[in-house]
Structures are given as C-alpha cells and as structure tokens.
Amino acid sequence: MAVLILYPLLLALPIEVSVDVYASGAGGARMALCLLCLAAACALQILHVRPAARGGGRRHRTVRLFVQLLLTYVPLIWLGTAWAETGGFLAASMLLVLSRLKWTLFFATVFSGPLIAALHHETVAYVVHLTVGTLVLGLTLYTVSRLARVSSDLVHARTSLAEAVTRERVRFARDLHDLLGYSLSAIALKSEVALRHIPHRHEQAREELAAILRISRQSLTEMRHVANGYCVLSPESELETSTAMLKSAGIEVDAKISAPWPDGMQGTVLAVVLREAMTNILRHSKAERCSIAVQRADGRLRMVIRNDGAWQERQDGASVPPPASRAKSGGLVNLTARLGAVGGALVVGPRPDGWFELAAEVPEAHGPLVPAPAL
Q1: CB 349 within 8 A of CB 323
Q2: φ, ψ dihedrals at 299, nearest 5°
Q3: Fewer CB within 10 A of the end CB, N or C, for the chain?
Q4: Neighbouring-strand partners of residue 349
Q5: For 339-357, what is each residue's pLDDT tens digit?
Q6: Percentage of the chain with pLDDT > 90?
Q7: What is the CA 260 to chain-centroid distance, rounded?
Q8: Distance between CA atoms of 312 and 285, rounded to whole angstroms?
Q9: Are 298 and 259 in contact (CB under 8 A)?
Q10: d(CA 69, CA 73)
Q11: Residue among 172, 330, 346, 327 at smallest CA distance from 269
C-alpha cells in the first residue's frame, strides 16, 4: 500500500512541473532539459526510499543528496521559478537521509523556493502556494517513504526470524537423532537381554543392568549438550544481529573489536549484555549514533557500549533518569548478577560528554558453562 501511494506521488510532481514550465513559454530545448532533470530527480528520490538501493554507506547517500541538491537549484537558472516546486523532493530527502539538523535543513529547503520566487517578483499568491505545496509534498513523501521502509524491514525481520526458528528445529531434531538414537536403542536391547537372564543367569543380568546404567548416564550428558545449544550464545553472531537491527532503525553503528571474544560462559554473558543494551537503546532512547568497543586490559576483557540517546533527550527538554534509577531496572539487575557469576562487573551511567555508557568486564580466561541467573 505504501508503494502504491508513493509512486503516484513521484509521478504527479513531474507532470505538474512540466506543465508549469511549458506554460511559462519554455521552448523545446528548455523542455528537454526539464524532462531530463525531472527523470534524474525522481530516480534519486527512489534510491533514497527503495530498500534494495539504500545500501552503499553514509558516503554514497550523502553524494546522492548533494546531486539532488544541485538538481533542485541549478536548473532554476534556465527553467525559472516554476522549477522551484521540485523542492519538495529535496525536503523529503533531507529527512530520509540526514540524522542531525535534518528538520532545520528541511524547513530551509521548504522556504528557499518561495524566497527565490519572491526575489523574482512573483505574486504573493504564488509565493504562498509554492510554500504550502513544498511543505505538504515534503512531509507526505517522507511519511509514505518511511512507511515503505518500515514495512520492508518488518517483512525482512519476520522472514529472518522464521528462518532462524526453522534452523533451530532442524538442529534440535538432528542432535536428538544423532546423540540419543543409538543410546536409546542400546538401552532397549540390553533391557530385553537382562530380562531374559534374570531367572537363570544373575551375573549376566547384573552386567547388562550395569551397562544400561552407564548408557543412561551418557545419554543424560548428551541430552544436556543438546539443551545447551539453546542457552549458549555467540557474541559474534549477537554483534552482527545487533548491528543490523540498529542500522535498520536508522542508528549509525561504529564497532571496534580489538580483542577476541571469549567462549564458554564469559562469551554467553557478553552476548546477553549486548542484547540487553541494544534492546534498551531501541526502546528507551532516541539515539542516532552508537559505538561498540571490545578491548583487553590487565587480564580482563572490557566491552563498552555508548549511545547519544541521553544527549538527545536533553535537547528535547526531557530529563535523563539518574544512573541509580536505571541501574535498578530488571534487565540491568539480571546483567549484574550474570556478570558477577563469572567474576565480572557492570558499570552503567551517562558520561560528561552527554553520551550514555554501559561497560561490562569479564575475566579473560575462558571458563566453563556454569549456572547463571536467567534473563
């Protein structure tokens, strides 16, 4: 539905601008230039919206935005103030591409066209019409484009989740078959043999029962290994998933991993800390940038996660909860208990520069899986 609304909007403005430029007395050369610039502007606008074309990094998006900026203002030299109506494209792109100062630049773009029209001695009615039209078009394109993005991201997330569940089901079924199939078959067979030996051959029956006990214990150990596949987390996979999640939410992520991740319970605990931190950023902050660093120091591994959500909350006029109140939340209490179980520590709170920081430390030595408080 979002796409069905978006593309007619992208088609309506070029038609309107073409008619206005033609009505202003433009000749064949100017009309050709107008159509060429409109095609390029529409293509750039689609690139800002389509999920398949949103990649390439921040640098490519900035280049596309700069080209669109040129296409908005340079053709005014030849096409006149009728071309200023394309400012709605640029205004919407400001909101879609930029993270900081986007609303300031949005309104600057909205009022730049009417200002140029006023300098060219256009009527007050036309200036007002151009202002309202650019504002409405920019907000409409931004809203529909964001809706298309969110819809696409939700479909992708649902597909990824379904695939992950299917993989886990296959893994669990495969492990049960491979690890327990033989053991259970052996237990059944030896139980039958023991039953036949009990009336007359007590020694052989005793040996068979001892074998059954040994196989049962081995099966129990193997079953625990299968179950551990659900509670052991990989910090590498968790970092990849968290990074993709933040980027899909429009948050810039800078990850610097200068030390190898630990395995065993230490790695699982750090993966849980990372997951909880990403959840808090998405649910409780307005962060636009996030940094994740892992480094080794004095025989300990330190993971630091920072975001600028606290700074933005101050800019919005809302108060930032003090570190003590945040430290009492259920998730952070569980993280503290988990880290304490492996000899680690957790420090949470705002920094002097306005960023919010979560730092977790664990011993560098690889440790075995041990019981830890649940999430």
Answers
A1: yes
A2: 75, 15
A3: N
A4: 357
A5: 888 889 999 988 888 889 9
A6: 10
A7: 23
A8: 8
A9: no
A10: 7
A11: 346
